[in-house]
Every structure is written in C-alpha cells, then in structure tokens.
Amino acid sequence: MPITTLRVPTADGQADAFAAFPDHGERFPGVLMYADGFGIRPVLHDLARELAGHGYYVLVPNLFHRHGPAPVLDLPEYIDAEARSAVFAQLMPLIEAHTVERALSDADAYLAFLTTRPEVAAGPVAVTGYCIGGLLATRTAAAHPDRVAALAAFHGPVGADGPAAFAGITAQVHFGHAASDLTPAALAELNRALDAAGVDYTSEIYPDTVHGFTMSDTDAFDPAGLQRHWDHLLPLLDRTLADR
Fold it and tell me: Largest CB tally within 10 Å, which of 58, 180, 183, 205?
C-alpha cells in the first residue's frame, strides 16, 4: 500500500501529512486519522496502510506542524516506561499549545483538503484518532456534522471538553476506552452525556488494556485490544461510508 507525502494548507502555514490509499485508480471514501501525541512515525504508517487496504483513502496530518515537520520529537524506536517521562516532558508543551481554536482551524483545513483530493469519493468522510487524536477527532465531528458520517476514538480523552461538546455530533460513533483510563462509573457518566446529546454510539472499556493499547511501538501495546479496535472500526466505516 503506497504512502504519499503531502502538504496541507492551513491558516498557520503548511502542515506536513501523509496519505495511504489503494492504487487501483479509483475513488475511495475518505478518512481523517489523527495520530496519538507521539505523532507520525512508522506505527502510524502501519495503521493507515491497514485501514487503506480495506478500501479507504486515509489522511494523517502532523498535529504539531506549527513546531516543525514530523517527527517533531526525537522518539526512541520503542517507548517504554523508562523513556516515557522524558518524552512527555517534551510533548506536554506541544499539547498545551494546541488550543481548541488551533485544533478547529486545523480541522477545517484537513477536511477541505481531504474532500477535494482526486482519489477521494464525494460525500461525507470519517474521522478517527488515538489518545489526544481521539479528542481532536471528536471536536472535528462536532464542528462538522454535515461532513463527518463516522467518528471513532481509541484510548482518547473524548469527554475532556464536557458534555456540551457532544451536542453537534450527528455521526455514528464508537469510543474504545482503555481500562486504565476510565472506571465503569466514569464510563456510565460519559455514556449518559452521549445519550443526552442524542448521539448514535457505542462506548465501551476494552478489557485488560492500558492507555495506548493500539500502539505497537510502546509497552502499552495489547494485540487483543488492537484487534478489538479493528473489529469495531471497520464495521462502523462499512456501515457509514461503503456506499460512497
């Protein structure tokens, strides 16, 4: 599955990005994939290629493009507990600088770019994300109900903006939470907020997982959790985008 390097025009300059898509010469449903906080690296290429292999055009932007091209951080090949504290010391200022206003401005740019690619089919798209990318995906779906048909977020702080943030979402939704991130009581509270907002959703804790369970280059990786993620993500996209 080919990887194409791209530059996405934004209000604050060009954002570097990559896309993965089948090379059939056809047009494919579009998916905007937000990376986790560690950013674009080989594991994101792997996830995007896997998803593209099911018939999607997958765009993955550099979340922190204002701070330079990816990789913005000097990451070890494998992020374990020993490396994590040093990585987070570099990462947290970038996350704190990525305000809601910047995130929504970027979302506008990413969707405009994605939906005008010649390889992307007409109509609504999906957004998905991991860790902080799950929150960004949720904000994108809420801000663009007419353009986003599906939203999936994994081990992401999707409720960080409060219950009112779900009000604009018309997409079908799946939230896959790490067991270390959310208690059953917190899950019930989150799901009540989704119910109150009228969201069509599934939202569950993936058993025996910790934050970051989809990422094979970290010690949080859980193969069963990653497979459960595919078992939810692919049917969601098939239901919402298959006719594009």
Answer: 58
Is the per-residue pLDDT at 243 higher than 90?
Answer: no
Q: Give tens-digit pLDDT for 83-101.
A: 999 999 999 999 999 999 9
pLDDT at 93: 96
**In which residue are the tokens 């300059």 written?**
13
**Greatest Cα pair distance in the chain:** 48
pLDDT score recorded for residue 244: 56
d(CA 104, CA 100): 6
Q: Are the beta carbons of 18 and 5 closer than 8 angstroms?
A: yes
Please give the model's pTM, rounded to 2 decimal places: 0.97
pLDDT at position 2 is 82
Instruction: Report helix, strand and coil shares of the chain as percent, to nearest 5.
Output: 40, 25, 40
| DSSP letter string, 21-47 | ---SSS-B-EEEEE--TT-SSHHHHHH
Q: What is the pLDDT of residue 24?
A: 83
Looking at the DSSP bridge assignments, the partners of residue 150 are 126, 172
Residue 17 CA to residue 62 CA, distance in Å, equals 6
Q: Where are the domains of the chain?
A: 3-241
- The CB density around residue 154, as the number of other CB atoms within 10 Å, is 30
- Distance, C-alpha 137 to centroid of its chain: 5
- SS3 of 165-208: the string is HHCCCCCEEEEEEECCCCCHHHHHHHHHHHHHCCCEEEEEEECC
Distant-in-sequence, close-in-space partners of 77: CB < 8 Å, separation ≥ 6: 217
What fold does the segment set 3-241 form as a domain?
A: Rossmann fold (3.40.50)
